[in-house]
Amino acid sequence: MIAIIDYGVGNLMNVYNALKKLDMDAVITGDKKVIDNASAIVLPGVGAFKDAMDHLVEHDLVETIKDNASKGKYLLGICLGMQMLFDKSYEDGQWEGLGLLEGEIVRFGDGLKVPHMGWNELHINKPHPLIKDIRDGEYVYFVHSYHLDPKYFDDVLLYTDYGVKVPAVVCKDNVMGMQFHPEKSSDTGIKLLQNFKELIK
Amino acid sequence: MLTKRIIPCLDVDKGRVVKGKKFQGIKDVADPVELGKFYSDQCADELVFYDITASHEDRDIFIHIVEDVARNINIPFTIGGGIRSVEDFRKVLLAGADKVSVNSAAVVNPQLIKQAALRFGSQCVVLSIDAKRNQKGSWDVYVKGGRENTGIDAIEWAKEGQRLGAGEICINSIDTDGVKQGFDLELNETLSSLLTIPIIASGGAGNMQHFSDVLNCGADAALAASVFHYKEIAIADLKEFLHKENLPVRRCL
C-alpha cells in the first residue's frame, strides 16, 4: 500500500486517481502509523515552499518521512514535494527542506518567463528503471518558478532545458522526485508512474 | 524547448458543453468529459472549462463536472466563470482543477488575485482580461461579458495583475473576438514584451496562420473555441502546421 501524504496543502485527489488507475493500492493519509506501514510514500506538494514545510512540521511528519526514507522505503516527491526533499530553498527567503538529497532550490534567472509553465522536452542524463521506456524528447507538463540546483548532477535522471538544465526526475537510492506533474503529463506521465509501480513491487 | 500551447475553451451550461456541429468518433459531444478527452487525444495542451451557468443552484452541477474531468483526463485544465472569492478558488481546486481564471471579480477586488496567489500559489491564478481598443491607441478593460467599459488601461491592469501574483494572463480582444480575422497581434506583442509571466492570446482565431502569427509575436499560448468546436481546425493538424512554421509545439506522434 502506498501512502500519499496529506499535510493540509492542496488537492491530492489527482495523484490518488492516477495511482488508482494503474491499480496501485493507495491511501491519502497524515497518520504516522499508516505511513510507517506503507510499502512506499508519495509526497505531493503545491504552493510555496515555506508554507508547505510549515504544514509538514505542524502535522509532525518531518521525522516520520525522514525515518522511513532512511530505512530504505521508496519515497517519491512530486513538484514542490520533490523540492522539499532537498537541503534548502531560496523561495522568498531561505528555508530548510528535508535534507534527504543534496542541492538547493533557486529562482530561474532573468530574461525568462516565470513560472516555467507548459510542456517541455525531457532529456536523458542517466538510465534507471524509473525512466524505463522514456525516449529523449518526450514531453511533460511543468509549472514552477524555482528549480533544483543539484549538488551532484549524477542524481538527475532526466532534465529539461529552460535557461539552464532543469532537473526533471531525480533519484538517489530509494529517494526520488519529479519536478513536473506526472499525473497531468498524459501518456509519458503515466509511463513514469507505471515504472514507479514496477520499482516498488 | 518549452512549447507553445494550444488551448480549446469549452463553455459549459448546466453540465453540458454548448457548441455546434457533430463530431465523428465521439458519442456525446455535449459531455464535457467526452469532448475534453477528444481534444486531449488530439494533443491539446490544456483545456479551459468556462461555466456560463446563470443560476446559483446549477453551480453544484459544475463542481461535479470538474471532479469528473479531473478523474478522466490527465492534462491540465483551467476553470473559469463565476469565480468571485478565495472560497470559490478552493472549491474548484479541491475538485481537481489545476488553474482558476478570474475576470470581473478581480477588477472589483484586485486583492482577490493576491489572496488566491498567497493561499494556493501563483501557478493556479490566471487573470483573464477582456480588452477593447479605444481612440487613444490603447486598450480599455471591459467587464460583465464585455458590456461595460471600466476605463482602466488594459496594459496597466495586466502589469498590476502580475504584481499582485497572477501566474498567467489570458488576454481576450473584444475587437477581434468572433470575427475570425486573427488575434490582436499588437496587443499580444505589447503585453508579452512588458510582462514576465506567460500570456494566453484569445479571440480572433479563424485559420491556422492566425495561430502562427500570434505565437510568433510573443504569446505563449493561444486559446480558441469555435474553430475547434465547429471542426474548422483539428488540433493535431494545427500542431503539424505550427511545427512546419518552426514553432516549438508538442506534436501528436
Which key phrases capture this entry?
heterodimer; A: 201 residues; alpha/beta; Rossmann fold; eight-stranded mixed beta sheet; 6 helices; B: alpha/beta; 11 strands; imidazoleglycerol-phosphate synthase activity (chain A); Imidazole glycerol phosphate synthase subunit HisH (chain A); glutamine amidotransferase (chain A); EC 4.3.2.10 (chain A)
The CATH architecture category of chain A equals: 3-Layer(aba) Sandwich
What is the fold named in CATH at topology level of chain B?
TIM Barrel
- Oligomeric category: heterodimer
Secondary-structure element pattern of chain A, one letter each: EHEHEHHEHEEEEEEEEEEH
Helix fraction of chain B?
A: 25-40%
**Low-confidence segments of chain B, ≥5 residues, pLDDT <50?**
none
CA radius of gyration of chain B is 17 Å
How many strand segments of chain B? 11
Largest sheet of chain A: 8 strands, mixed
What is the name of the CATH architecture of chain B? Alpha-Beta Barrel
CATH superfamily of chain A: Class I glutamine amidotransferase (GATase) domain
EC number (chain A): 4.3.2.10, 3.5.1.2
Pathway (chain A): Amino-acid biosynthesis; L-histidine biosynthesis; L-histidine from 5-phospho-alpha-D-ribose 1-diphosphate: step 5/9
GO cellular component, one term (chain A): cytoplasm
Pfam family, one (chain A): GATase
